[in-house]
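OP here, attaching both records as promised.
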Amino acid sequence: MATTISNIFTPAVTYPTFATLLAAAGVLGGAYTIVDPHGGARGFGLLPTKSAQPKLSPFETAYSRIHGIRNLGAGLGNFALLGYWATTNSSVAKAVVRRCLGLGLVCGTVVGLGDAMILRSYARELEASAKGDEGDEKVVKEARELAAGKSIGHAITAVVILAVGLDLILG
């Protein structure tokens, strides 16, 4: 059978691929945040507003690394489920793993939507304090724009994750 575009974009191919990409994002993003907490925070959508403090405090570094290790662990857990799904010969086991991945994705939607709301709130707080003691105006504006943009990305991703998760559960 020849491979066509219609064969590639089927749920049997796209859902495991999507779940694998999410797992990889968790592992790689988590590892990156552990190694470079400041860069990990920026990639997530958070930028410190005090231009005089280019480094994170020890507290902020530790908190960022905690965030990173949790993402890494969740990504590895998803890889384990995906590996089992791909290698088991049992149709019952495949169905169970499919539903487990779906439940995990649906529950993970709370994380994505929560991240979006927190980033949106952060952007609004920066807007309100744009001329306060938070830092120089240029840095505050950059931080506000980054958080606002990333909040939209997190929300869109959460909706896609919800749709895929529901289809894995119900399909």
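Record two, same layout:
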Amino acid sequence: MWSCNGDAAGFLGNESKNVCTWNALISAFTMNGRGEAALQAFSKMIMENLKPDGVTFLGILCALSRSLVDEGKRNFRIMEEEFKLHPGIEQYKYMVDLLGQPGLFSEALHLVHNMDLKADPIVWQTLLGACQTHHNAPLGRYAARKLLELEPTNAHKLCFIFKYICSGFYVG
């Protein structure tokens, strides 16, 4: 409720703040399109000497996934380097989205190929969606093939790929 009306004063004055309550605030700001407020909350959490967890960084990366690319890359890096947290598939998905939406395809593909985890269908679908947005047919074909390799009988994924093909960007 604090994030919905833009007043986090009640939260910030609360003595029982912990990682879970900060995550709730960061996620609420994110869901309400208030990425800057989510970043400010994250900074305050760090100033209070609370160690963020994977959920914290998921909220931050989601908040940044449509705009602040450099800030997102920095937060992804400090997640591992400073806080010793290994990204999960969800964090990688948001990083692929963060890089793909502005058309940073070489970085997005490099990330996918160098992930500590095997890229799952959601990661490939995210990359495919960015390819469709930016009319990147060669990479889109590659992402579509990877998606089909992982889930050849998933109707939802097949519909997504069919939509991509019908949009005219998939040639061959």
